[in-house]
Design brief:
Elements: E1 8-12, H1 15-26, E2 34-37, H2 47-50, E3 57-64, H3 71-82, E4 86-94, H4 98-104, H5 123-129, H6 133-139, H7 154-158
Parallel strand pairs: 1-2, 1-3, 3-4
Length: 171
């Protein structure tokens, strides 16, 4: 799937995903674009969002798969695909969530180890506040090829929602 022409808009579930996407863009691991928090599983994409896009926009939806209510996600995908100024809709399901993705692609066993926080519950705040996030990832042997590399469970597959992360990864 070719998306290198036109504007790229990343819609991510939360602040941690937004920070990660920005770091990956800065590190030239994924295609450059704008990252905004809009949880595609819970938040409806509205016509006002589309007015911001030029023609041939590519929309990347990054979301967790730890829940099975996908009604809004499916509506968002249909809405975006029907929009005249949207060229491509890319889905990147996180298996199960960002924390599991990061554990999978580093040498940590508990998510708190990544940013040296006392409890897993402190992770999100510490992750967002971390000034040297890419260095921390590298310190823990970050394997970018493993990030967003799995297909979601069969529930998502039956809905036609697949992992399309290869479309944004830079070789």
């Amino acid at each position: 799937m070719q998306i290198r022409n036109g504007r790229i808009q990343y819609y991510v579930e939360g602040g941690c995903e937004k920070k990660l996407v920005k770091i990956l863009i800065e590190s030239r691991l994924i295609l450059p674009g704008q990252a905004d928090v809009l949880n595609p599983i819970q938040d409806r994409i509205k016509p006002a969002h589309l007015r911001m896009f030029p023609m041939k926009a590519s929309i990347i939806l990054i979301f967790d798969t730890d829940q099975t209510n996908t009604d809004i996600l499916q509506q968002n995908i249909r809405f975006l695909k029907a929009a005249s100024n949207v060229k491509t809709v890319i889905t990147i399901p996180q298996v199960q969530n960002l924390e599991q993705e990061l554990i999978k692609c580093t040498d940590i066993r508990h998510i708190r180890e990544l940013v040296n926080c006392a409890h897993d519950s402190d992770f999100k705040t510490a992750f967002i506040e971390e000034k040297r996030l890419f260095d921390k990832l590298q310190l823990h042997h970050f394997d970018f090829k493993k990030l967003w590399s799995e297909e979601p469970n069969s529930f998502y597959g039956k809905l036609g929602i697949h992992n399309q992360s290869q479309s944004i990864k830079i070789d």
